[in-house]
Amino acid sequence: MKQKTVVFFLVAALALALLGACGQKGEGKHTDATATSAFSSYTDFVGKKIGVAIGSVCDVLAQDHIGATPVYYTDSSIGLEDVRRGRIDGFMVDLSGAIIISGLPGGEMLKAIDMPAEIFIAPMGAMSNDQNVINRFNTFLDGLKADGTLDEMQARWLNQIPDLDSPMPEFSRTGKNGVLRVATTGARMPFSYVGSNATLKGYSIELIQRFAAHEEMNIEFATMDFGGLIPYIVSGKADIAIDNVSITEERKKSITFSDSIYDDQLGILALKGDNKDALAVKTGGAIGWIKTGIERNLITDNRWKMVTRGFGVTMTISLAAQVLGTVLGCLICFMLMRKRKLINTVANLYCGLIHGTPMVVLLMITYYIVFGKTNISSVLVAIVAFAMVVGAGVAQNLKGAIDTVDPVEIEASRSLGFTPFKAFASITLPQAVRRALPGYTNGFVELVKATAIVGYIAIQDLTRAGDIIRSRTYDAYFPLIFIALIYLIVTTICVKLFKLAVNKVNGGNVS
Fold first, then answer.
1. Per-residue buried b or exposed e for 209-244, using 16+ beta carbons within 10 Å of the residue's own CB
2. What is the chain's Cα-based Rg?
3. In which residue ranges of the chain is CATH 3.40.190.10 found?
4. Fold for domain 314-506?
5. How far apart are CA 90 and CA 245, in angstroms?
6. Helices and strands, counts by H and E, the chain
7. Which of 477, 463, 466, 468 is nearest to 106 (CA)?
8. Contact by Cβ (8 Å): 218, 198
9. What pTM was computed for the model?
10. How high does pLDDT run on average in the chain?
């Protein structure tokens, strides 16, 4: 019966996904966004909805220079899918990226509309919290401009639709001056993206590799969400950050920028005029959609390797945090049971603070503040942060289970000559563990799912791997569904294993 239930949920999830992704022609119901209107100029977007990435400069431009309503997205692929479905009228990005996206498979429905240079030019620069690094980079950049190398790179990467699968130039680095730590997103074509064999490519990536070679340094990349770049630099986790980050006066108050590495216009991606229905995508049905999705998102460039590596990171963090958190939880539970008011108050305060703080906030505080000036790996920081949450949950769960044990049994054991410790170990603890195991199981399942936020601190886990794949293919559905099914399978197996453990402890069947 249990196996049938699992199969039912798997099939239902896949069916719902296919209904969403492979909608038949004419089924789309558009909102007030004008999905069927043809846009030919940025002035056509007055009063319309334009999607913008959180952290970009596009929201002010959309509102003040166009008269449109900005709609904020953390993920560009979701914003572009909303354009295709008519939920918003356009999505604003840098013009070079817009041109590439409209030429990718899946972008046939979209066209890039340029914002005139006289309205806005986005000078893009590298960022650092170390003025010396910026000075050295600017000197290097001046050399590239003088000998024409920067112009050649821009012609190859930005002034035409580049071959995104072409190999990157190779540079010799002696490493005698140490390691250059670089922060980037790996999700912004053609500046920084993940190519074949999960290697970073793009205009910004080539530029920073040239700089590392010039400085005779090895290079170490950390990829993260766009919004995490500045906090990562400010906390000293990287020496320099580079992507397609626009230089603005407001940002210059928080971070030091280099000279411009490229001056780009902005563009708006909108539906082509001949798309009478935003959902009229010919996918060859459900089977065709699955085959295409597997080919584009998993097979091409061996992207499945990113998924397997991400899965390994997710499970490493989950298992290590659960073990460490269990030990911590037992210690806190001991403190909660003490009669000394100070010890009890400290334990209760700890549990209250942990449970009252959103997990993503706790993770970022641990990473950027508690361990901000250390070189501890991001994975270890994530394990510590999640272990603190697990510890609070285990402590309160176990304490509640201990409180349910009948005190008469404890008194009876004491009357038989048991010491307090032996009575606890022989009578109280076994019963408490049996009663706490279901909650412990649920806690681990929630922990596995909660690790999806570790991308905020530059960890490429399972969810982040899916985000990187979507940033390359701009397929909003398949990577999400595939990753969701992996989580579903893993958590289902975990529940089954924990139930077997509960069954073993109880010495009988557990439904």
1. bbbbbbbebbbebbbbbbebbbbbbebebbbbbbbb
2. 27
3. 30-121+265-282, 123-264
4. MetI-like fold (1.10.3720)
5. 21
6. 19, 15
7. 477
8. no
9. 0.75
10. 83
